[in-house]
Amino acid sequence: MRYQWNGDTLEFKRSGADGRVDVSEDRVHLQLNLGLLLSVLSGKIKSEIEEVLDKELNA
């Protein structure tokens, strides 16, 4: 995976997926673009991301 911070934004890219995470004082916004093969798993991927973020940000 390749990633780079650009200010408060983490931009990332890997085979089959790319996106960004925008971080501010009171929110985290994730944009994830899935390729064709990973798009089949989009529901599972979304629920896993939400579960991990909820757990880590509410700790």
TrEMBL record:
<dbReference type="InterPro" id="IPR013433">
    <property type="entry name" value="PHA_gran_rgn"/>
</dbReference>
<protein>
    <submittedName>
        <fullName>Polyhydroxyalkanoic acid system family protein</fullName>
    </submittedName>
</protein>
<dbReference type="Pfam" id="PF09650">
    <property type="entry name" value="PHA_gran_rgn"/>
</dbReference>
